[in-house]
Design goal:
This protein is α/β, with parallel strands linked by helices. It is 40% helix and 14% strand. The protein contains 15 helices and 13 strands. An eight-stranded parallel barrel has the order 2-3-5-8-9-10-11-12, surrounded by seven helices. A two-stranded parallel sheet has the order 1-13. Helix 2 runs parallel beside helix 15. The termini are close together.
């Protein structure tokens, strides 16, 4: 089969420590990479994520990024109508350098496609809690979450500014984001990438502990015609039963957990739950419309790619069919290779097919491949080749590696070998 690209992400510290030319040449040689992108706004997590130390970084053993800093230039005029302003790196070896331009220059000299990613979080959580708590998502009990609410106009304006300015200021082919949308409720940890084994009812119920129930959401929901106070009241009762808040809720909690009540039956019993999910979906669809317009107004040829990272993105308000007109491609960041078994690769297949059924065939689906050691710390190159072969039959339009900083050369080469064995060619 023919695909358009093999993409790979790079961090500013990768470019500093190893050099942009070296990174791109290594990826091209060992994994057929013809598309690179900078993670230009990175959430706070240790790198490498899974292993203790980098396998090939010559300057440092690990790195802990700042929270949601920007590593390239933006036009401050794009943020004139919001109190939220981009926060730039203060690290000596990273500040005062436009790392996106560094990558662009190297990629263009090698005739590679180049992009930028706005990662999970877009603003320092500690600063947001201190200075802008009214912009944060709230749970149904009123407690704050460390996420900006996309229904607040100041947040929406900041998001538009990030995308518009990133594209306007830089010669990129695509802008990608795995922006966390609404908090989805119960966390599944590593199992987020495993084959689904949860009861659908329990997955649905997890959303009542999610966000958002802030004033901006209330105002927007009421403007759309929803009875917000009724929705909140009904979901508070459901949350109280689910969490066994009172002794009198104990029986109700057991019935929810142990009966064969279906998710459909619960939605029929509590229509407010469906209305709340629908409201979240409409809110996120309008956000994608705003982002798409911001990107295209800056440069019509630039591709907007969303990097979906949840097993059930609908729990965060994302409906693929609803956003199909407002995206150019979807990256499915399933990393089932981490388990080292063919059986768990079924999760990747399920997610790719769900995306395709939603966005149709005129938009591209990019499948992620995990090139890091698995959760046991083993370098299993065979599972990468099997994964490439599996998805070669799913009509994908590209591959995307996750992630170079933690990849061994042998696992990168396994991507290339898997493509050869699967007769997967780049056109």
């Amino acid at each position: 089969m023919f695909i358009k690209e093999v993409a790979a992400s790079l961090y500013p510290w990768d470019l500093h420590d190893e050099g942009a030319d070296h990174c791109i040449d290594t990826l091209a040689e060992h994994a057929n990479v013809n598309s690179v992108y900078l993670v230009g706004i990175m959430h706070k997590e240790k790198r490498p994520l899974r292993e203790l130390y980098y396998p090939h970084n010559p300057k440092r053993k690990f790195y802990t990024p700042e929270d949601s800093c920007v590593y390239y230039r933006l036009d401050q005029a794009d943020f004139a109508n919001t109190p939220l302003k981009p926060i730039y790196s203060t690290v000596d070896f990273l500040k005062d350098t436009d790392w996106l331009d560094v990558l662009i220059e190297s990629a263009r000299s090698r005739k590679k496609k180049v992009g930028v990613e706005i990662s999970h979080t877009i603003f320092d959580a500690s600063i947001a809690k201190r200075d802008f708590p009214y912009l944060l998502q709230r749970k149904i009990d009123g407690s704050l979450l460390s996420l900006l609410c996309p229904n607040h106009e100041h947040v929406r304006e900041y998001i538009r500014g990030l995308f518009h300015s990133s594209v306007k200021q830089h010669d990129v082919d695509f802008i990608q984001s795995c922006l966390i949308l609404f908090a989805e409720g119960g966390k599944m940890g590593w199992n987020n990438h495993a084959v689904a084994d949860e009861k659908e009812l329990h997955v649905l119920l997890s959303t009542v502990d999610a966000g958002c129930f802030c004033g901006a959401c209330r105002a927007k929901a009421m403007a759309m015609g929803y009875d917000w106070d009724r929705i909140v009241s009904d979901l508070q009762q459901l949350s109280q039963i689910r969490n066994g808040v009172e002794l009198s809720d104990a029986l109700g909690k057991k019935l929810l957990e142990q009966s064969n009540l279906s998710a459909t039956a619960l939605l029929l019993q509590v229509p407010s739950l469906y209305q709340w999910l629908e409201f979240r979906q409409k809110s996120i669809t309008s956000l994608f419309k705003d982002i798409h317009q911001a990107v295209k107004s800056a440069n019509p040829r630039v591709e907007f790619r969303y990097n979906t990272y949840l097993k059930y993105p609908e729990l965060s308000g994302l409906d693929f069919a609803a956003i199909r007109d407002y995206i150019d491609s979807i990256r499915e960041s399933d990393y089932s290779e981490m388990w080292g078994t063919t059986e768990q690769l079924a999760a990747k297949r399920q997610k790719i097919l769900k995306i395709r059924s939603g966005i149709g065939y005129d938009k591209d689906v990019i499948a992620a491949i995990d090139v890091r050691p698995n959760v046991k710390g083993e370098s299993n190159e065979d599972i990468i080749k099997r994964s490439v072969k599996l998805i070669s039959n799913l009509g994908i339009d590209g591959l995307s590696l996750g992630h170079y900083d933690e990849a061994t050369l042998s696992r990168l080469h396994a991507v290339k070998a898997g493509m050869e064995e699967s007769e997967m060619l780049i056109y």
